[in-house]
Specification:
The chain contains ten helices and 14 strands. The protein is α/β, with parallel strands linked by helices and 288 residues long. The strands form three sheets. It has a seven-stranded mixed β-sheet with strand order 1-2-3-4-5-6-9. Helix 7 packs antiparallel against helix 8 and helix 8 crosses helix 10. The radius of gyration is 18 Å and the shape is globular. The structure holds zinc ion. The site of zinc ion has 5 residues, from loops. Zinc ion binds next to loops.
Length: 288
């Protein structure tokens, strides 16, 4: 998930009509990644789209008010209905469209922990996320991995440990050599780590390192947010995570408090982003 706090504040405090109008101005853009795989961008997490003879599979579905716009963007690519929605994790800016797509008959796939969180009221960062109704819940879940055979692709959905949350998945289209990473890998600078929902800096580092062993230099990487990337971008992101983690760990080992660590600016050389939030989340994952 990624939104400046002021966006959330407006969603929280403005009347519903104004919040809805916020989505009225959103436009969905499509980027072709391979002949049969696209990335859609609007508001919220990147949507991956696989088209072909078997139907349409999407990865994540953004906010519920955007479903019609997402469907219109998909209709520009294919006449086939959405058969599957694969969720990268449970955050609302990736999954609030679930009830709409599930209600239209799509089968939703997610990690078991992501489904558990969707069944109860959550609080993510600064916003409540109410439990989803049954049609918005994943009907296929997995613990470590599940493989789909769809549109001529071998599609591996992999949980490589707790990272951004406790229910993260990456989706790897083997023949196309395309991976959607969800929010384990993002391109807006310092990432959000949902420590309150099972995430941690060391989990992020382990997960990202594992990704680099699955993909190769030719892989097209669809991040949770931002433009299509390469393995090299993922490697550089891992260096950022590891460097900041080590700085914070060293300071903890020297007995520094969180306030002292924040003042020492451990994100120096990296960013942009909310350094205070990021360092606090790193600290909370490391402090004894
Ligand atoms: Zn997220």
């Amino acid at each position: 998930m990624r939104h400046p706090a002021f966006v959330f504040s407006s969603l929280l405090w403005l009347p519903a009509a104004l919040a809805a109008q916020d989505f009225d101005t959103v436009e969905i853009s499509a980027t072709q990644v391979t002949p049969s795989i696209y990335m859609l961008q609007g508001s919220g997490g990147n949507v991956g789209v696989s088209i072909g003879d078997d139907g349409t599979l999407i990865v994540d579905d953004q906010f519920a008010p955007l479903t019609d716009k997402i469907l219109a963007a998909i209709a520009e690519l294919t006449d086939e209905p959405v058969e599957y929605v694969v969720n990268t994790h449970f955050h609302y800016d990736h999954t609030d469209g679930n009830e709409n797509f599930g209600g239209m008959g799509a089968a939703i796939v997610a990690h078991e922990n992501a489904r558990v969180r969707m069944t109860t009221d959550q609080f993510v960062r600064v916003r409540p996320q109410p439990a989803y109704s049954p049609e918005g819940l994943p009907e296929i879940t997995f613990d470590q991995s599940v493989r789909l055979h769809f549109n001529g692709q071998t599609i591996d959905i992999l949980h490589l440990g707790n990272a951004h949350t406790d229910g993260d998945a990456v989706i790897y289209f083997r023949e196309a050599n395309v991976m959607h990473t969800g929010d384990v890998f993002v391109r807006y600078g310092l990432p959000f780590i949902d420590v309150g929902n099972g995430g941690s800096i060391n989990g992020m580092i382990r997960f990202v390192d594992a990704i680099t062993h699955v993909i190769d230099q030719d892989t097209a990487v669809i991040p949770g947010h931002g433009a299509v990337a390469s393995r090299q971008d993922v490697v550089e992101y891992a260096v950022m995570l590891r460097t900041i983690r080590d700085r914070v760990q060293d300071a903890i080992d020297q007995g520094r408090s969180l306030q002292q660590i924040l003042q020492s600016n451990p994100t120096q050389g990296f960013g942009p982003g909310d350094a205070e939030e990021f360092v606090t989340n790193v600290y909370n994952g490391l402090a004894p």
